[in-house]
Amino acid sequence: MSYATDDAEMSSAREILFHCRGKLSAEIRKEASRSQPDAQRLADLELVMSQLRDEIDAVTAGDRAVTTRVRLLYGMLIKDAYAPTSR
Questions:
Q1: How far is CA 47 from the centre of its chain?
Q2: Which stretches of the chain drop beneath a pLDDT of 50?
Q3: Cα separation of 28 and 36, whole Å?
Q4: Using an 8 Å Cβ cutoff, are 59 and 17 in contact?
Q5: What is the pLDDT of residues 35-52, one digit of tens each?
Q6: Angstrom distances, CA of residue 43 to CA of 7, 27, 67
Q7: DSSP classification of residue 86
């Protein structure tokens, strides 16, 4: 692959991860603002946030394996966005 393609893939991966980080931050704020926040859920969300930060750092460093995982994550997000809700 060319450097331009690699750079575009890394940039896209970072954008996806930043989007996920924003959504996760909103969930953390939402849970924390509840009258009785679920401590376990908050801890789980914070753990995911920590892992997400590690993934962002890895993509920024050029880790191709993480870029591949981000593509899978993006596919899951798209699938979830268009799946009929059963809530």
A1: 12
A2: 87
A3: 13
A4: yes
A5: 999 999 999 999 999 998
A6: 34, 12, 26
A7: -
| Alpha-carbon gap, residue 10 to 4, rounded angstroms | 10
Which CA distances in Å does 71 have to 11, 23, 33, 39?
Answer: 12, 17, 32, 31
Encoded tokens for 72? 């899978």
Count of alpha carbons within 13 angstroms of residue 1, beta-carbon side: 9
Provide the token pair at 67: 């870029």
pTM of the model: 0.75
With 0-12 CB in 10 A as exposed, 13-18 as middle and 19+ as buried, what is 69? middle
Rounded CA-CA distance 11/5 in Å is 10
- Alpha-carbon distance of 38 to 34, in angstroms, equals 9
C-alpha to C-alpha distance for 49 and 52, rounded to whole angstroms: 5
According to the model, what pLDDT value does residue 40 have? 94
